[in-house]
Amino acid sequence: MTNRSLESVIDPGYILGSFLVDESDFLAAIAPGLCLDVGAHVGQSALKYMQLGHRCISFEPNPKNLPYLHEKLSVIDDLDSRWEFHQAAVSDTAGEATFTIPNEVGDDSTGWAKDFVGSSATGSFHAAAGSADAYTVATVTLDDTVTERVDYLKVDVQGFEHLVLGGARELLHRGDIGYMKLEFLGNASLLKVVQEAGFYVFDQQTYQTQPTLHNTVWEDRPIDIVQEGLLSTSKPFRKVSIPTRPRRFDHYTEFVSKFVSWTDLWCVHSSRLREFLAIADKLESA
């Protein structure tokens, strides 16, 4: 093993490769803390975070989702002390905005959705078109709303993730957010904010949905991070792939826009990078 620094092996400003660890497995491996659920929908994520021992602050502006959300979370013991809810959209400014809902779960839906008739996971700030419903909703910023360190931030707001981070610049630049999972639709400004805040970035979806494209784009020849002294496992690394030629953010944005339309990004603050790799190492060896 060598004594090379972590930063000499992987640097911010690149999509480093794939992180395929399940969200629940990872959150179960970190100490209980605070999770933010931006775009809470009907409460699936908030329920999971609290069942894993974390506290949660949820943000959801769609009034038709709220009965389902409150019902789902009613099973949590001491909910009042572990959950905070804001019926608002998170943005880069506080005030009001038009929130559009292009489609809802219908009476004829099947699978998991059949239990949530009338709800929608597709509401956003996009302009209304056709028969879409539109509401005036309150907007808040994370900087104004959150006053403590955040272990995990999940943002799924249909392409407006950059606005959420635009209203969290103070939290980000104080290093008060450890990990983030962001839906990514190819918005270059989102990656710029992430880079400036000192996060390392992994792709969490493309490898699963487009493995051929993934391997072509990354020329996936993983750095031997075991030999670099960064991990202890002797097994081939499957769940975290760090290729020798990671993609620059601008190249990656073009790739997502052209080939896959969306993906999820797993973002790790530099202060938590060694913890992140240690947890990935443990999960890989399990």
Overall description:
The protein has 286 residues and is an alpha/beta fold. The chain has one domain (6-285): Rossmann fold (3-Layer(aba) Sandwich), CATH 3.40.50.150. It is 31% helix and 23% strand. The chain has twelve helices and 13 strands. It has helices at residues 23-29, 44-51, 66-73, 79-82, 142-145, 161-166, 169-173, 188-196, 206-209, 211-218, 249-260, 273-285; strands at residues 14-19, 34-38, 55-59, 83-86, 89-90, 95-101, 133-140, 150-155, 177-184, 199-203, 240-241, 247-248, 263-269. Strands 1, 2, 3, 4, 8, 9, 10, 11, 12 and 13 form a ten-stranded mixed beta sheet that branches. Helix 2 (44-51) links the parallel strand 2 and strand 3. Residues 1-5 and 213-237 have low confidence and may be disordered.
Query: Span from first to last CA?
Result: 22 Å
Q: In one word, what is the shape?
A: globular
Q: Which sequence of SSEs, written as H and E, runs from N to C?
A: EHEHEHHEEEEHEHHEHEHHEEHEH
- Mean pLDDT reading: 80
Question: What is the CATH superfamily classification?
Answer: Vaccinia Virus protein VP39
**Beta-strand segment tally:** 13
**What are the segments in which pLDDT stays under 50 over at least 5 consecutive residues?**
1-5, 213-237
Give the count of helical stretches.
12
CATH class category label: Alpha Beta
Strand content range: 15-25%
Q: Mind describing the biggest β-sheet?
A: 10 strands, mixed
CATH architecture: 3-Layer(aba) Sandwich
Radius of gyration: 19 Å
Query: What's the helical proportion of residues?
Result: 25-40%
